[in-house]
Hints:
The protein is an all-alpha fold. The protein has one domain (29-287): MetI-like (MetI-like fold, Orthogonal Bundle). The protein has helices at 2-16, 25-52, 55-63, 66-99, 105-111, 114-117, 120-131, 138-143, 152-177, 180-188, 193-221, 225-231, 241-250, 254-286. Mean pLDDT is 83; it is low at 1-7.
Amino acid sequence: xxxxxxxxxxxxxxxxxxxxxxxxxxxxxxxxxxxxxxxxxxxxxxxxxxxxxxxxxxxxxxxxxxxxxxxxxxxxxxxxxxxxxxxxxxxxxxxxxxxxxxxxxxxxxxxxxxxxxxxxxxxxxxxxxxxxxxxxxxxxxxxxxxxxxxxxxxxxxxxxxxxxxxxxxxxxxxxxxxxxxxxxxxxxxxxxxxxxxxxxxxxxxxxxxxxxxxxxxxxxxxxxxxxxxxxxxxxxxxxxxxxxxxxxxxxxxxxxxxxxxxxxxxxxxxxxxxxxxxxxxxxxxxxxx
Length: 289
């Protein structure tokens, strides 16, 4: 009985430590766990413990505060909208940059990565100057009755700007790998251009689009520098949750700051979990990894 019980455990251990040409599995695995614990898990655990120290009633009061709820709604709602916009236009940009050859293509391809390298404060100042009521784009838009700077719409523009590279770069390699013969076969069989896009082109790209969506959403939720310059930061209107955390800290309201941060952490984790589940389903459904 004991041998039978030990056999599955031995097999499980052998599967865990598969033979490898590279030595040092135990050392590297230990370093990995230690690094993740110190850099990721420990700070998050301290944050949750600090937020729980105020007690369930106090934590609930902080979470349900009207100003806190308005800031969380602004941050997560606009982040989801910005990630969705980036997913659509990121696919279009990736398709154009991969499938077509035109003058200046390399320059445009390099500009896609500009939000990665540009300091967020610089991006915020540039967007605020551009979309301000007297800016190059803000003034003609104001004449049409559209105000962007210092409104939630300005936050959306800033979040779209910082998240776009994620959606482009995750989709671009898969666009390059799509076999053009599949599109030609669909056309020969009488499929319309729209049907060929839906049945041939989009299915292998959906997992990558969801990955870009998740990355853009995660970046947008925590974005601070590029938003505060163009948002207006009006409570209940255009105040984001990261800014509210900074305000709480400046007021020495550490309980309120940690409560908002804990809620953002849990909501971000839940949203990313749902996105990853949908992404995993799409991979199994369409047969693409």
